[in-house]
Design a protein that fits this description.
This protein is mainly alpha-helical. The chain folds into 2 domains: 196 residues, no CATH class; 46 residues. It is 53% helix and 9% strand. It is built from 11 helices and 6 strands. The strands form 3 sheets. A two-stranded antiparallel ribbon has the order 1-2. The chain has a two-stranded antiparallel ribbon with strand order 3-4. The protein has a two-stranded antiparallel ribbon with strand order 5-6. Strand 3 and strand 4 form a beta hairpin. Helix 6 crosses helix 8, helix 6 crosses helix 11 and helix 9 packs antiparallel against helix 10. The chain is globular and about 75 Å long. The chain starts with 9 loop residues before the first strand and ends in a 9-residue tail after the last helix.
């Protein structure tokens, strides 16, 4: 029997509020780089105010636009306002319920090889198909391929695919910024120190020079932030086969 292609190994199903919350929790871990403290962990009872404050989001309007884009929904501003305002009374349960009323998430269909079902193979083919839908050329990707280089070049597409295929199961991710970004960061820090010292000792010449250099360093940081990172690793996973087993639920992700 021929193996199923990537598109047929998953189908879109209505999202559940628990899955939406799982994605929010994954985002929180990715932002922190670790498991949050128990008191800070997102739950259905977390207020919208606590959620926005903990993630340093600008405001509910900005967040709602991003959520519409990520979940491919078209909720109006009034619908988001109803779910999020007043922020100290509305909770993530309200937000997750709203999103799940229209959002869909991929559900694995087990591929069959030689008449036998294989959920890991389904997860790999589904992951590859999701990457291709995101515009990433993954046609030659094999289960034995290492994650490192692919993650470095396609970090966002990989993260989005994992988030949607395995809500709440995103493993710990370690990333190292590219060399140029690190150099500009250190330069900006040095310029800031020189600027402060020159102000203290009234050294106007160095104050002007350090101020100009600081501005250029921030411009460099902005530009270099769009370059691929030097290294991205998923804790405990080395190949796409490992990642596929995690998505299929055959191994537990390392979140701590």
């Amino acid at each position: 029997m021929r193996p199923m292609n990537g598109q047929s190994t998953f189908s879109e199903a209505p999202a559940k509020p628990e899955q939406i919350l799982g994605i929010f929790q994954d985002w929180q871990r990715l932002e922190l780089g670790r498991l949050p403290d128990e008191k800070d962990a997102l739950t259905f009872n977390t207020t919208v105010h606590e959620w926005l404050d903990s993630a340093d989001f600008l405001d509910w309007k900005t967040v709602s636009k991003g959520l519409n884009e990520f979940f491919t929904t078209n909720f109006s501003k009034d619908e988001w306002r109803t779910a999020m305002k007043p922020e100290k009374k509305k909770t993530l349960r309200d937000v997750c319920t709203l999103i799940s009323s229209r959002a869909t998430l991929p559900t694995l269909n087990e591929a069959k090889f030689l008449g036998a079902s294989c959920k890991t193979a389904s997860a790999f083919l589904a992951l590859r198909a999701r990457l291709q839908l995101a515009g990433v050329d993954a046609t030659k990707l094999l289960p034995s391929a290492r994650l490192d280089d692919f993650l470095r070049l396609h970090t966002q597409a990989m993260a989005n695919a994992i988030l949607k295929l395995a809500p709440g199961r995103m493993p710990k991710v370690k990333a190292k910024s590219n060399l140029a970004h690190r150099l500009f960061a250190w330069t900006a820090l040095a310029c800031l120190v020189i600027l402060i010292m020159s102000e203290i000792f009234s050294a106007n010449f160095w104050s002007v020079i350090s101020c100009m250099a600081l501005i250029l360093s921030f411009i460099g940081l902005t530009v270099c932030s769009h370059f691929p990172p030097a290294r991205v690793q998923i804790e405990g996973l080395e190949t796409f086969a490992d990642l596929s087993r995690m998505i299929a639920g055959e191994i537990e992700p390392k979140k701590a």
